[in-house]
C-alpha cells in the first residue's frame, strides 16, 4: 500500500487489486481498514476488491493490460506484485534446521540441531499475549541476539513487543503488539479525520494498538506491554488512560 501511495505522485492512475473485502482488514480491522481505503480513494487510487490477477497482457514486450479473475481488464504500464516471503533452507538439506524461534525454549532448537538460525518471520513471544508468527523487522535485533546466546549454550527467551510504523499521504500510522486473533476493536478519536487510536482486544485484554496522528500513544502502550503489565479492555473502553502511568494490572 505504501507503493501505491508513492506512485500516486508519479503515475496517471493507480489501481490496487486485493483478495480481501477491505484493505488491512486482518491487520487493522474492518473500520480502520475502510477509513484508510477512503484515504486512498481520495488520493485517486482505484480498488478492485475480492479478486486477483489472472493474466498480464503485453504488446511488443511491454505490459499493456492486467486481466482480473472477475474478467475486468485494466490498462497498465507497470504491475507491482506483492508475493510475500518464505525462508530458504534448501542449501542445508541434511540438517534438522529450525528457522523459527521457539516461544518456549530456544535451547531446545540448539540441542536438536547443529545449526539454529532465525528468519524475519520470528516465532517469539511478547512479554504478554502469548506467541505467534510476526514479520516485524524490529524483532530481528532481539531475535538474533537471543539466537546467538542459545548457540553459545546461554539459554534465553525472546521477550519483546513488535513495533512498526509507516507513512502514507503524509499520515503517520503506528502499530505495537501482536493482534492475531483479536475479537474486538475499541476506537478513540475520529476515523473520518484520520486522527485515532485503535485498541485490539482478545477476551478481557488489550493485545495490540494502532494509531494515526495520535502520537505518542503507541510507544507508551509498547512500554506498558514490555513491562509485562496487562491492559484491560475496560480501561480503554472508558477512555481512562491511567494505565499509562503504571496502574495497569
Automatic annotation (TrEMBL):
It comes from the Eukaryota. GO terms for cellular component: mitochondrion. Residues 163-236 form the Reductase C-terminal domain. Gene3D superfamilies: 3.30.390.30, FAD/NAD(P)-binding domain. Pfam families: Pyr_redox_2, Reductase_C. Keywords: FAD, Flavoprotein, Oxidoreductase. InterPro entries: FAD-oxidoreductase/Apoptosis (IPR050446), FAD/NAD-bd_sf (IPR036188), FAD/NAD-binding_dom (IPR023753), FAD/NAD-linked_Rdtase_dimer_sf (IPR016156), Reductase_C (IPR028202). GO terms for molecular function: oxidoreductase activity, acting on NAD(P)H. Residues 1-91 form the FAD/NAD(P)-binding domain. GO terms for biological process: execution phase of apoptosis. Belongs to the FAD-dependent oxidoreductase family. This is Apoptosis inducing factor mitochondria associated 3. It comes from Myotis lucifugus (Little brown bat).
Amino acid at each position: 500500500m505504501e507503493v501505491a501511495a508513492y506512485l500516486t505522485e508519479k503515475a496517471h492512475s493507480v489501481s490496487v487489486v486485493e483478495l480481501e473485502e477491505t484493505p488491512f482488514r486482518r491487520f487493522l480491522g474492518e473500520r480502520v481498514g475502510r477509513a484508510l481505503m477512503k484515504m486512498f480513494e481520495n488520493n485517486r487510487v482505484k480498488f478492485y476488491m475480492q479478486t486477483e490477477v489472472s493474466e498480464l497482457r503485453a504488446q511488443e514486450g511491454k505490459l499493456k493490460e492486467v486481466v482480473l479473475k472477475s474478467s475486468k481488464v485494466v490498462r497498465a504500464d507497470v504491475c507491482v506484485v506483492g508475493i510475500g516471503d518464505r525462508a530458504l533452507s534448501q542449501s542445508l538439506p541434511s540438517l534438522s534446521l529450525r528457522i523459527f524461534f521457539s516461544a518456549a525454549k530456544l535451547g531446545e532448537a540448539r540441542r536438536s540441531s547443529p545449526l539454529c538460525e532465525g528468519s524475519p518471520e520470528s516465532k517469539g513471544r511478547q512479554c504478554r499475549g502469548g506467541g505467534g508468527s510476526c514479520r516485524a523487522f524490529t524483532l530481528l535485533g532481539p531475535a538474533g541476539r537471543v539466537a546467538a546466546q542459545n548457540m553459545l549454550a546461554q539459554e534465553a527467551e525472546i521477550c519483546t513487543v513488535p513495533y512498526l510504523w509507516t507513512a502514507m499521504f503524509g499520515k503517520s500510522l503506528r502499530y505495537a503488539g501482536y493482534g492475531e486473533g483479536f475479537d474486538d476493536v475499541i476506537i478513540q478519536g475520529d476515523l473520518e479525520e484520520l486522527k485515532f487510536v485503535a485498541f485490539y482486544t482478545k477476551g478481557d485484554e488489550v493485545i495490540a494498538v494502532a494509531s494515526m496522528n495520535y502520537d505518542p500513544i503507541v510507544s507508551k502502550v509498547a512500554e506498558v506491554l514490555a513491562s509485562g503489565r496487562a491492559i484491560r479492555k475496560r480501561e480503554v473502553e472508558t477512555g481512562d488512560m491511567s494505565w499509562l502511568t503504571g496502574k495497569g494490572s
